[in-house]
């Protein structure tokens, strides 16, 4: 029977070779899957008679896209080594019924890295249905970003493929390399937001000249032209490439380095400028032009307050003490080269609290480090040397004003209260005739030698005030007649006259010596 069937097959005409023979229908293991049902009576569509290995070629001839993937090494089949090496039937077995699954695919365990679209970033968390629509084969899922993210594209399609800039980590993680364009971003441009130059997401025909974006930043107001890059660079506008020291014959020194260009050049940087200090600093001239226009003779570009002029070295009048801190105008009230008087009184006449009494040579007592500092005055060189306790007395105790020569010299003027307590003016105003400056009690008056009335006998032990009982203004003038003091003691009632000394002696009234 078998031989008969084989003979029939071999004897069949060529047009009937693809049709299933009775034998093939007899040995068919089962119905084909629904997708292949139309080929159920045509075994040759999938099988090559007497050639077991030819079946995969038939599969690939029909499934041309998969065949292309295998040839190109793309897609799941092209990227999976087993799919490239094994027969198709190893995974896709047919003849198992209409409802059998010939594609043994599990979406939950599928390794997307074996596809042409490995899942990265936020794509890993997406459900399959977000990209693989129902009713479509998996390979038909879109691969271009804009197919899924058209609504998210705020560039409105002007930039083409999103993946050229953005990554799957998120829209904010973009990786566009501007250096691949004809305008590399350097300096401050690298940190500039895209929309600052590409307004309204327009990227084509963006101008590359500086003035197109920085017209409002141009402090020169167009006076220096549109080639900003000749002086400025992308790092920062205030840091120009222009080197004033090398590119001009006026090097900038000190604080001139920090001065904005426009402060000197105004709106026209090409205009010729005057180079003398006064041209720019006339309003800063605290001398009001008195010192001329050669500011550089004294001042430095580092600061107006730091001068190179040295009064000690450059003049024959060294500044000492507080003179060092004086402003120049304090003394130089006219032209700087005008001759000035050097006497203290010339500048300090209004400060003279002595009213001119001490003359004009202030330096004899005072020093340049301050009027109130201890003076160098020697009181012993005056008409009133200080002796004894007078040396310890403060100046103002006697000198009640700064006009020192007004101080009185009479002892009683200062010591009137002391005199009133003891002598009450009875011994005159010249205390120094008896007392010395060491102590009031250390008096040394010799009545016998210093007057024309020597004290003898009982007169020696008398208190001064016994005879000097009346206050006097200047000189002391007392009568030398006995009766002047002893009128009350005259037992004779004046009968023997006023010359008591003709009979009596000073030792006592009872002792008589007739002459």
Report on this structure:
The model is unreliable at 1-17 (pLDDT under 50). 22% of the residues lie in helices and 4% in strands. Helix 3 packs across helix 4. It is rod-shaped and about 215 Å long. Among the domains are: 230-268, no CATH class; 479-515, no CATH class. It has helices at 2-11, 22-27, 55-62, 64-72, 75-79, 81-85, 145-149, 194-197, 210-214, 244-247, 261-265, 277-281, 311-314, 328-331, 344-348, 395-398, 411-422, 447-450, 464-467, 482-486; strands spanning 166-167, 170-174, 299-300, 303-307, 504-505, 508-512. The chain starts with a helix and ends with a strand. The strands form three sheets. Strands 1-2 form a two-stranded antiparallel sheet. A two-stranded antiparallel ribbon has the order 3-4. The protein is mainly alpha-helical and 515 residues long.
In short:
This protein is mostly helical and 515 residues long. It has helices at residues 2-11, 22-27, 55-62, 64-72, 75-79, 81-85, 145-149, 194-197, 210-214, 244-247, 261-265, 277-281, 311-314, 328-331, 344-348, 395-398, 411-422, 447-450, 464-467, 482-486, and strands spanning 166-167, 170-174, 299-300, 303-307, 504-505, 508-512. Among the domains are: 230-268, no CATH class; 479-515, no CATH class.
Describe the main β-sheet briefly.
2 strands, antiparallel
Level of helix content?
Answer: 10-25%
Q: Mind telling me the C-alpha Rg?
A: 65 Å
The succession of helices and strands, N to C, reads: HHHHHHHEEHHHHHEEHHHHHHHHEE
Average pLDDT metric: 83
């Amino acid at each position: 029977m078998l031989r008969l069937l084989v003979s029939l097959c071999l004897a069949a005409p060529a047009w009937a070779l693809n049709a299933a023979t009775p034998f093939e229908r007899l040995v068919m293991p089962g119905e084909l899957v629904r997708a292949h049902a139309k080929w159920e009576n045509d075994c040759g569509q999938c099988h090559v008679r007497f050639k077991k290995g030819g079946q995969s070629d038939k599969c690939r001839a029909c499934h041309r896209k998969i065949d292309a993937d295998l040839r190109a090494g793309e897609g799941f089949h092209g990227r999976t080594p087993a799919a490239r090496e094994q027969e198709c039937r190893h995974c896709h077995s047919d003849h198992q019924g209409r409802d059998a699954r010939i594609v043994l695919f599990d979406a939950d365990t599928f390794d997307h890295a074996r596809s042409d679209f490995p899942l990265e970033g936020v794509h890993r968390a997406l459900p399959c249905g977000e990209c693989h629509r129902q009713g479509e084969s998996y390979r038909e899922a879109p691969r271009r970003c804009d197919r899924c993210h058209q609504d998210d594209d705020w560039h409105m399609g002007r930039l083409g493929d999103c993946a050229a800039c953005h990554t799957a980590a998120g829209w904010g993680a973009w990786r566009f390399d501007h250096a691949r364009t004809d305008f590399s971003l350097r300096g401050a441009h690298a940190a500039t937001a895209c929309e600052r130059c590409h307004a309204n997401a327009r990227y084509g025909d963006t101008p590359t000249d500086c003035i197109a974006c920085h017209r409002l930043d141009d402090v020169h107001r167009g006076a220096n032209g549109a080639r900003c890059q000749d002086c400025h660079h992308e790092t920062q506008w205030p840091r120009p490439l222009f080197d004033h020291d090398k590119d001009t014959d006026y090097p900038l020194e000190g604080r001139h380095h920090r001065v904005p260009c426009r402060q000197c050049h105004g709106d026209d940087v090409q205009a010729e400028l005057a180079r003398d200090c006064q041209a720019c600093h006339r309003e800063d001239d605290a001398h009001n032009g008195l010192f001329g226009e050669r500011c550089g003779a004294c001042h430095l570009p580092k600061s107006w307050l730091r001068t190179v002029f040295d009064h000690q070295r450059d003049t024959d009048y060294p500044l000492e003490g507080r003179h060092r801190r004086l402003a120049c105008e304090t003394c130089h009230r006219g032209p700087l080269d005008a001759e000035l008087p050097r006497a203290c009184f010339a500048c300090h006449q209004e400060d003279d609290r002595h009213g001119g009494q001490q003359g004009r040579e202030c330096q004899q007592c005072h020093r340049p480090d301050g009027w109130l500092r201890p003076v160098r005055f020697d009181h012993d060189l005056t008409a009133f040397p200080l002796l004894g306790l007078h040396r310890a007395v403060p100046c103002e105790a006697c000198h009640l004003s700064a006009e020192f020569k007004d101080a009185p010299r009479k002892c009683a003027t200062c010591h009137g209260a002391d005199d009133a307590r003891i002598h009450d003016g009875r011994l005159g105003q010249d205390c120094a005739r008896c007392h010395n400056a060491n102590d009031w009690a250390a008096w040394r008056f010799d009545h016998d030698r210093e007057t024309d009335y020597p004290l003898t006998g009982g007169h020696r032990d008398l208190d001064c005030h016994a005879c000097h009982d009346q206050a006097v203004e200047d000189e002391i003038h007392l009568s030398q007649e006995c009766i002047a003091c002893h009128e009350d003691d005259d037992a004779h009632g004046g009968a023997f006259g006023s010359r008591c000394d003709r009979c009596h002696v000073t030792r006592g009234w009872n002792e008589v010596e007739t002459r």
